[in-house]
Amino acid sequence: MTAQDSATAPTSIAVSTPGDTGTGTLGGPRGTGPQHRSTTPGPGDARGDARTGTLLAALGVTAFSLTFPATAWGLEGFGPWSLVAVRSVLAALVAGGCLLALRVPLPGRRHWAGLAVVAGGVVLGFPLLTTLALETATTSHAAVVVGLLPLTTALLSALRTGARPSRTFWAAALAGASAVIAFTVQQSGGTLTGADAYLFGALLVCAAGYTEGGRLARLMPGWQVIGWALVLCLPLSVPGALVALSYEPVRLTAHSVTGLLWVAAGSQFLGLVVWYRGMAAIGVPKASQLQLAQPLLTLVWSVLLLGEHLTPAAPLTAAAVLVCIAVTQRTRG
Distance (Å, rounded) from C-alpha 145 to C-alpha 77? Predict the structure, then answer.
């Protein structure tokens, strides 16, 4: 299911400040010598950074679009609490191994509060609430939360960072969100279920995690943001996994194991790595609008992997969403 934050224009190489132990490159500390001083990027560099950021954010959206179907597979063999706790532990082991192998220093003290918000929203809150919802809701119904996530994240980002996207941006974002919501609600029969409380709760905590994660991705590499957030959750996820596995029955099948491995490695770590990197490059509001395509991708995977049926309205909605995405990408955040 899902995982948009503070708008940032492509900037020069950051120089460390006192007390900041973040790193500017994969595993390497930020340099302080003359060769590492800030330089102003030219127009070509800015366009290249924007293209790269858009591509990375799109890869993140693709990874996230598989989360709901993979979770449905995982629930075939694991209970909801076991699935969430074990996925968090596995993802933390991968992230922690990378941090140790590259000898990444601990983040500065001023970053830990933000990392806690990322951990609570993206690592624990969203996976748990959406997994509980998917016990009774279909993946197409759960996709409603993803349709609302870009707009919610942009709103929280504006409140958190003071970003002020243009009116054209907001009009396109609202139109895209409306199209996605109408489509996904129609797919679920137009009815609301008890799972909606979980889904709307997941929407809020995930938007908060994306917003704070995007802000932190300006100060340290995006993979370190999610990596440290996962490690921060280990004191909760390890005992939680042990308790959940002792109470909930486990049935290992090809589907359940594949679903668990994907939500742990793909959705929980690798997807968020490229997602936060993309947000840092093109800004949270613009990156968030790429996620308008996520519900439609999820529905395609649901047809292919879960056997759900897609109505003829899908291509029309897809075209409308792509137009809205194109408009948001051409407006300044």
Answer: 25
Residue 236's alpha-carbon distances to 79, 119, 147, 240, 266, in angstroms, are: 17, 11, 30, 6, 21
Tokens of residue 48, six digits? 């290249």
**Which residues contact residue 274 at a Cβ distance below 8 angstroms, ignoring those fewer than 6 apart?**
56, 57, 59, 60, 63, 222
- Lowest mean pLDDT segment, chosen from 27-36, 37-46, 50-59, 287-296: 27-36
Report the pLDDT value the prediction gives residue 251, as an integer from 0 to 100: 93
Give the whole-angstrom CA distance, residue 302 versus residue 315: 15
C-alpha Rg value of the chain to the nearest Å: 19
Q: Tell which residue, 62, 77, 75, has the closest CA to residue 2.
A: 62
Structure tokens at 305: 């992997």
Answer whether 27's CB lies under 8 Å from 103's CB.
yes
Q: How many CB atoms lie within 10 A of CB 252?
A: 10
- For residue 251, the Cα-to-chain-centroid distance in whole angstroms is 28
Residue 96 CA to residue 224 CA, distance in Å, equals 10
Q: Locate tokens 């102003």: which residue?
A: 40
Task: From 287, 227, 253, select the one nearest 26 (Cα to Cα).
Answer: 227
CA distance 44 to 28: 26
Cβ atoms of residues 70 and 258 within 8 Å: yes
pLDDT digits (tens, 9 = 90+) for 279-297: 878 887 778 778 778 888 8
pTM of the predicted model over 0.70: yes
CA dihedral (291, 284, 281, 36) in degrees, to 10, reads: -150
- Using left for φ > 0, alpha for ψ between -120 and 50, and beta otherwise, residue 307 falls in left
Q: In the 8-state DSSP scheme, what is residue 9?
A: -
Q: At what angle do helices 222-232 and 196-216 cross, to 10 degrees?
A: 130
Q: Rounded CA gap, 180 and 145, in Å?
A: 10
% of the chain at pLDDT higher than 90: 37
* Residue the block writes with tokens 């992997």: 305
Q: Distance between CA atoms of 39 and 260, rounded to whole angstroms?
A: 44
